[in-house]
Amino acid sequence: MTGDFSSGDIVLCTYGRNPRKGTYITSRDGHAVVKLESGYNVGVPVSCLSLVSRPEIVELPEITISQDESLSALSIVSTGGTIASRIDYRTGAVTSQFDAADILRAIPRLQTIGYYRARKLTTILSENMTLAIWQQLAEAVYEEIRGGASGVIVTHGTDTMAYSAAALSFMLDTPVPVIFVGSQRSADRPSSDNTMNALCSASAAASDLGEVAVVMHASTNDDVCAIHRGTRVRKMHTSRRDAFRSIGTLPVGSVTYPSLSVNLEPCAVRRGSCEPGLSKNLEERCALMTFFPGMSPASVEAFSGYAGLVLSGTGLGHVSTILIPAIRKLIEEGTLVVMTSQCLHGRVCDRVYDTGRDLLKAGVIEGEDMLPETALVKLMWVLGNEKDPECAERLMRSNLKGEYTGRSTNGL
Predict the structure, then answer these.
(1) Nearest 5°: phi and psi at 126?
(2) H-type helices in 66-130, by residue range?
(3) Which terminal residue of the chain has fewer beta carbons within 10 Å of its beta carbon, N or C?
(4) Active centre residues (catalytic)
(5) What DSSP line would sit under 230-262, residue for residue?
(6) What is the pLDDT of residues 91-133, one digit of tens each?
């Protein structure tokens, strides 16, 4: 039987050698989206489908929500990533939840961790994040803290989450945990990390932590989430559930699953270590440039007029000799230039080779072991809040929010 299909219809997909049964979701331009029995979605021509059955629509009972106000007051600020998604099991569609009650219906166990209020800031793919949204986010989190939140959870897409975590690390002084969390795989996939990450992030937000952090799977198993410092974390894989890693250091803590017990390392900043503060100014005229062999001096000259430039150099922090005059000219014109390394592990040292010494003579600032993207965000923040060049340079050399490690650990 073939013909028109409605969302929720059980269909047989005859495409290739093996017919597969699934749930029809939607179609457009002659192609349909079908959720297979494995839980994964496929796109196929509508002509490949035949109707198996049309199930009766059954209304599911509403889950009763009862928040315990004696628990930690936690705020959820959403930017487009989701701490919880709800599946329509009739259609297979997944919808993001932004209302606190909807989130708790999707993940009822959250009710045992805290008392929640939710705030929808924006709904974007994380690659569309901007400095203006960072500023709005920092202000929203600050307001939640001032409003009595004992922890804030920021839901965020994973692609640029490390940038945003670093940005808020510099823009906020926080006496409570500010936890960034996302999901590598959506709630409709059998291997989704959605629920575990949400529960672990809430536990971290209710813990004794007192800094900005990222909480995500620590391994491919559903056993523990790592708590990464916001200025030392990087997404290291496109799709693995344990994509996030602390670089050059160990995570500041962990959350064991399913017990949700939180363990904080001695290096973690503790709750109540400072008063709430907000410094949200950012300098937009900053950039990050990755050096490659054969790069033309014109690539450097293109940043003339910029307030700041982070170079991601090779090894100990090098670029080709031919670029140094252009870099020197940029610095003489007033651009603050910071050197980082593409190696990620280890620290910059421009005192070993002639090229490095020439860069230092030109006025380049060594970025120690800062991640290139963290250095960029820090540079934006420093130049947005400090107009005196000498003071700005001194701040870039200072360890403000754990962006430098005290020493390079062997093997990290």
Answers:
(1) -65, -20
(2) 100-106
(3) N
(4) 82, 158-159, 235
(5) TTSEEE--SS-TT-EEESSS--SEEEETTT--E
(6) 556 666 666 677 888 888 999 999 999 998 988 888 999 999 9
10-53 matches 72-278 in fold: no
- Is 314 within 8 Å of 284 (Cβ atoms)? no
Q: Which residues contact 347 (CB under 8 A, 6 or more apart)?
A: 248, 341, 368, 369, 408
Rounded to whole angstroms, the Cα distance separating 141 from 120 reads: 12
Given CATH 3.40.50.40, say whether it is the number of domain 286-396: yes
- Superfamily of domain 72-278 in CATH is L-asparaginase, N-terminal domain (3.40.50.1170)
- Reported as a single tens digit per residue, the pLDDT across 5-35 is 888 889 999 887 788 998 888 888 888 888 8
d(CA 92, CA 107): 18
In angstroms, the CA 1 to CA 137 distance is 52
CB 373 within 8 A of CB 275: no
Distance CA 304, CA 99 (A): 46
What does the CA dihedral 380, 266, 227, 378 come to, rounded to 10 degrees? 0
* pTM of the predicted model as reported, rounded to 2 decimal places: 0.86
DSSP code for 271: T
